[in-house]
Amino acid sequence: MTEQLLAEDLSIRLNLFGFSLAKLESILASGDLDLVARLKVALMESEDDLGELPEVIAETGKIIAEAIAKGAPLNSLVIEGDAHVLAACLLAEHDQDFTPTGSDSWQAGAYWTLAQQFGEELEPESRKMLGYFCEGRPLFGKVIDTDNKYYGYLTAAELVFLKLELVQLEEYVKDWEEAGTLEFLRDLITWLHTVAEAEQDLWFYTW
Question: What is the model's pLDDT at position 165?
Fold first, then answer.
């Protein structure tokens, strides 16, 4: 995923939710064959709605099975594709109590704009976390390389750290002329606060 692709496809949005990273991690390497079967059935039943090629659906099922059997990251995998993104989302959605944030009101490109305009004002660790919103944070490999899909997560501790940094940033740049970016920054702080208040980790993905 690149900034250019996001700029060209204005329909791409980023969904942010509160969720439990521990629940997701408990699935990985669990060896739960019954769960593999149930997730594959759910995958096949939603095939028409997903709009993916049959080979992507088939590969997604294999990735789910391997992740539940062996864990993540997957051995020797470097680049994640569409099937890995779909598999990660299916695994992350299982048995979760999501906290919605309403983040899909903004286009995903807003994260790139924020990172470009104000990223240098952040500490390196916070800048890295903001970068996850731009390019994803893979579970299975090293990088995500697709046309318009990615996903990622922040732990509860990372989320709180980033929120505090962004609050400080908002105070520092509140009189700047970039009104649109400043509005987005404030919305992002609100979304992170919503998840922090729920005492959850953060999950996000494009759609």
Answer: 96
For 15, other C-beta atoms within 10 Å of its C-beta total 18
Q: The tokens 């989320």 sit on which residue? A: 159
Amino acid found at 195: V
Q: Over 60: is that where the pLDDT of 123 sits?
A: yes
CA distance 92 to 98: 10
For residue 189 the two structure tokens come to 């702080």
Dist CA 106 CA 110 (whole Å): 7
Quote the strand ranges of 11-134, DSSP E.
14-19, 79-80, 99-100
pLDDT digits (tens, 9 = 90+) for 178-194: 668 899 999 999 999 99
- pTM beyond 0.85: yes
Crossing angle of the two packed helices 82-93 and 54-70, in degrees rounded to 10: 60
Q: Which residue(s) pair with 204 in the sheet?
A: 16, 152
Beta bridge partners of 107: 13
Tell me how far CA of residue 48 lies from CA of 52, 54, 146, 198, 203, in angstroms. Answer: 8, 10, 20, 34, 24
